[in-house]
Every structure is written in C-alpha cells, then in structure tokens.
Amino acid sequence: MDNCDAPATKADLAALEARLEQRTKADLASLEERIQADLAQVKDQLLETILEKVSDSETRLLTAFYSFTRSNEQRQSQLEGNEIAHRVRLATHDSRITEIERRLNIPKPDQS
Q1: Residue 101: other Cβ atoms inside 10 A
Q2: Is residue 5 part of a domain?
Q3: What is the structure's pLDDT at 98?
Q4: What confidence tens digit (pLDDT) does each residue in 1-42 have?
Q5: pLDDT interval class at 106 (50, 70, 90)
Q6: What DSSP assignment string belongs to 72-103?
Q7: How many CB atoms lie within 10 A of CB 87?
Q8: I need a labelling partner for 49 at 20 to 30 A (CA). Which of 9, 65, 84, 111 fits?
Q9: Is residue 112 part of a domain?
Q10: Cβ partners under 8 Å of residue 16, min gap 6
Q11: Claim: this prediction has a pTM higher than 0.90
C-alpha cells in the first residue's frame, strides 16, 4: 500500500485485519493486566479493612467481657461477705440460745 490512491486488494485488507487483530490483542492483554493489578490492590485493601474491623471487634468484645468479669467478681465478693456476716450472726444466735438453755437448764433436743 505504497500508493494511497490505489484501490485496496484482498491482500491489503488481510494485512490490515492482521495488524488490527494484533493491536486489539495487545490492547486487551494490557487491559487485562491493569484490571488484574487493580483487583489485587482492591483485594489487599479489602483484606486490610476486614482485618482491622475484626481486630476492633475483638478489642471491644474483650473490653466488654473484662468489665462484666470485674463487676461479677465484685458482686461475688459482696455475696461472700454477706454470707460470712450471716454465718457470724447465726453463730452468735446459736451461742446465745445455748447460753439461755444452760441458764434455764433445758436439755438440748438432741440430748434426749
């Protein structure tokens, strides 16, 4: 195709088709590489975001469990303290009843 005014032959059209096909394949390959690179970058960003969110969630859960555990330990300590106070009162009442029985000389029920 040296002469621009000459009519195109089948060979000229076939050569043009081959060049266009080659360029199209090269363009598609380049486009595919860019898309794969972009997808890899998006995948990495998404993975990083997910890991960050999971880590934040774990931190919040652990903080909540720690707070619950601490308040539960305080409540348990308070209950144990109340139990000890009740036992002391019961022992005091028991000793008073024993003293009254001794003074009145009333035999204990299990000494029949």
Answers
A1: 13
A2: no
A3: 87
A4: 467 778 888 998 899 899 999 999 999 999 999 999 999 999
A5: low
A6: HHHHHHHHHHHHHHHHHHHHHHHHHHHHHHHH
A7: 10
A8: 65
A9: no
A10: 8
A11: no
DSSP string for residues in 10-49: HHHHHHHHHHHHHHHHHHHHHHHHHHHHHHHHHHHHHHHH
SS3 content of the chain, % helix, strand, coil (to 5): 90, 0, 10
Per the structure, how many domains does the chain have? 1
Could you read off the pLDDT of 42-93 as tens digits, one per residue?
999 999 999 999 999 999 999 999 999 999 999 999 999 999 999 999 999 9
Question: Does 47 map to a domain?
Answer: yes
Let me know if residue 19 belongs to a domain: yes
Residue appearing with tokens 């720690």: 66
Residue with structure tokens 């990495």?
A: 44
Distance CA 18, CA 12 (A): 10
**Cα–Cα distance for residue pair 33/110, rounded to 1 Å:** 95
